[in-house]
Design goal:
- The complex is a heterodimer of chains A (about 140) and B (about 425).
- Chain A is α/β, with parallel strands linked by helices and about 140 residues long.
- Chain A has 4 helices and 11 strands; from the N terminus they run E-E-E-E-H-E-E-E-H-E-H-E-H-E-E.
- In chain A, helix 2 (about 75-85) runs parallel beside helix 3 (about 100-110).
- Chain A is globular.
- Chain B is α/β, with parallel strands linked by helices and about 425 residues long.
- Chain B has 3 domains: about 5-180, 2-Layer Sandwich (Aconitase, domain 3); about 185-285, Aconitase, Domain 2 (3-Layer(aba) Sandwich), CATH 3.40.1060; about 290-410, Aconitase, domain 3.
- Chain B has helices at about 5-10, 15-30, 50-65, 90-95, 95-110, 125, 140-150, 160-170, 200-210, 230-245, 280-290, 305-315, 335-340, 345-350, 365-370, 380-390, 400-410; strands spanning about 40, 45, 80, 170-175, 185-190, 220, 250, 270-275, 295-305, 325-330, 355, 375-380, 395.
- In chain B, strands 11-10-9-12-13 form a 5-stranded parallel β-sheet, sandwiched between helices. In chain B, strands 7-6-5-8 form a 4-stranded parallel β-sheet. In chain B, strands 1-4 form a two-stranded antiparallel ribbon.
- Classes of the chains: A alpha/beta (about 140), B alpha/beta (about 425).
- The interface between A and B is large, with 39 and 45 residues.
């Protein structure tokens, strides 16, 4: 596994790619996909898709740790719109991205990393305080 | 990324701030995916309904549109996906004035950039279908998967900002489905029962999408016993893209890159293999329909209807009367023909509402639900079924015939 133990509570998982700025927050974790159009009520800042494991949960200010980017192309605009209203996650951490999520993160200057040697939704406990650094030589998420 | 002299000039701002922003955006995306260079594209298709853009996106577009004309024009044919409303019917949908205002502002900005407001997600049926090997930058998942798979064209999913960037620069980063190595199959699905109607094709697409799982998976289907029509491919592909985020599929003996299954397999590579039969397709649809006995609205949309689908709807409604809202959504290119051929009149005489240039889920579905009291929805579109739950609707996936039966029976779904 491409991860390192730095100490008792300090475990690092390296990603294949990242963009945006360094962020820290509480992880909101599920082995589910992610699409801003399909899954979110962006007005209320909650997951709204009934089948989603995080249905009803607020994503505002959380580091979302999810499986794969899903759904349509709207997310490319929606991350920018969510950021403008400041009702958005702190960062997005995905096992697998699609181009839309990357394009949206690039447009919105949003923090995202993806591509791990492990299933990152299994590695990060829900509610853990984590740090995401896409600017490091090897982008990573770290349990603080 | 390796840049040409022209791309370096764009990046330096020598060709104006719009091109500078566009190429910089594309470089960021290209670097993420390890693209080595750019590939010229011949068309761009921009998804930009204002429900997605929001006020922030419209204001951003207006800033681009405010640049001097010589610095803001797209350089390849650039067209648009459905808009957030049909202005001619906005009052019937109870779209608020602020929605119309935002849409008008976005349209004006796009027009200032030289974008053609085609407002369609079926451009491969109505505008200019791409040809095999043509590199394009398309921005609707259903459009991309159809163009890649059925036409043999080459596109990634291009979100609005990226598709607009491609329109401005005339190129896109060379990664993903622009490259040969990503177009090989990664899973094989043996289909034991060839679907008959659109909702069955959509259900098959949904099942395969769930099996595939992510954007980088390319399903190859074997066992399809006849060549599907363009509309059947449309429903299958749209659902596959929606449920799986999949951008390319092959059908052995049918789609252009899979004359034989071996043509798309990587020799010696281990391959995930699945089988799908009639029971799976029925169970998929039943998983939605069993939860809904009564609906408030029937919607034919996602993708927009072809002229042939419009004729089917009109034929099924002849001599009947819809007693709940029945929305029939098509493109601005099909609508005049539907008018000219009397299809619109037949549908509306039976109580249906023909809408043009929008798509239900892209047109403020949550606001329409609240304004009209719509909570339960019947459709023959698996794609719409997948999306609309997040907007607060309980969807039922039915055949076109069963949808119209429900519309004419006060919303009651026949057991």
């Amino acid at each position: 596994m491409n991860s390192e133990n730095r100490g008792m509570s300090d475990k690092v998982f390296y990603a294949a790619a990242g963009m945006g700025m360094k962020r820290r927050g509480l992880a909101l974790v599920a082995k589910n996909g992610f699409s801003a159009r399909y899954d979110l009520d962006r007005t209320r800042g909650i997951f709204s898709r009934p089948e989603h494991k995080l249905a009803g949960e607020s994503y505002v200010g959380r580091v979302l740790v999810l499986d794969a980017a899903k759904g349509g192309v709207a997310t490319a605009w929606m991350l920018h719109e969510m950021k403008a209203r400041d009702i958005m996650p702190e960062a997005l951490v995905l096992n697998t991205v699609n181009p839309i999520m990357v394009q949206g993160a690039a447009f919105a200057d949003f923090t995202m990393i993806s591509g791990f040697d492990c299933d990152i939704t299994e590695a990060i406990p829900n509610g853990a305080l984590v740090e995401v650094d896409p600017l490091a030589e090897r982008p990573f998420i770290r349990i603080v | 990324m390796r840049l040409t002299h022209e791309e370096e000039a764009m990046r330096a701002g020598n060709l104006g701030p719009a091109l500078q922003w566009a190429i910089e955006h594309q470089i960021r995306v290209g670097r993420y995916f390890g693209a080595s260079d750019f590939v010229p594209v011949s068309q761009a298709h921009v998804m930009a309904d204002t429900e997605s853009l929001g006020r922030a996106g419209v204001e951003w577009l207006e800033r681009l549109a405010g640049l001097p004309p010589e610095h803001r024009q797209v350089r390849i044919p650039t067209i648009t996906d459905p808009r957030g409303t049909d202005f001619a019917a906005a009052h019937r949908l109870k779209h608020e004035p602020w929605i119309l205002d935002l849409e008008r502002r976005a349209i004006a900005a796009f027009q200032a950039l030289g974008v053609l407001m085609t407002d369609t997600c079926i451009n491969y049926q109505t505008i200019m279908a791409p040809v095999r090997g043509e590199h394009v930058a398309y921005g609707d998942t259903g459009v991309v998967i159809y163009s890649n798979s059925v036409c043999g064209a080459r596109s990634n999913f291009e979100g609005g900002p990226s598709a607009l960037s491609a329109g401005l620069t005339g190129r896109t980063p060379r990664y993903g489905y622009h490259r040969d190595e990503h177009r090989r199959a990664t899973l094989v699905v043996t289909v034991a029962w060839t679907p008959c109607v659109f909702n069955d094709w959509g259900a098959l697409g949904g099942i395969v999408g769930r099996l595939a799982g992510d954007y980088w998976q390319v399903p190859a289907l074997v066992g399809i016993e006849r060549v599907p029509s363009s509309d059947e491919m449309k429903h299958f592909g749209a659902a596959l893209a929606s449920y799986g985020s999949v951008a390319l599929f092959h059908m052995a003996g049918i789609t252009p890159e899979a004359h034989r299954l071996d043509d798309v397999l990587i020799p010696g590579a281990a391959m995930r293999a699945f089988a799908v039969g009639e029971a799976d397709i029925l169970a998929f649809q039943g998983s939605y329909t069993q939860k809904v006995e009564q609906v408030d609205v029937v919607v034919f949309s996602a993708p927009q209807l072809s002229l042939v689908e419009m004729q089917l709807v009109a034929g099924l409604l002849d001599g009947r009367r819809a007693t709940i809202p029945l929305l029939v959504v098509t493109s601005p290119q099909v609508k005049p023909d539907a008018d000219r051929l009397g299809l619109t009149a037949r549908i509306e005489a039976a109580g249906g509402m023909v809408l043009s240039g929008m798509c239900f889920y892209q047109s403020y579905a949550r606001e329409m639900a609240e304004a009209n009291g719509w909570k339960r929805l019947a459709t023959n579109s698996a794609k719409l079924t997948n999306i609309i739950g997040g907007y607060g609707y309980a969807p039922a996936l039915l055949s076109m015939e069963a949808c119209i039966d429900a519309a004419c029976a006060g919303g009651r779904i026949a057991p």
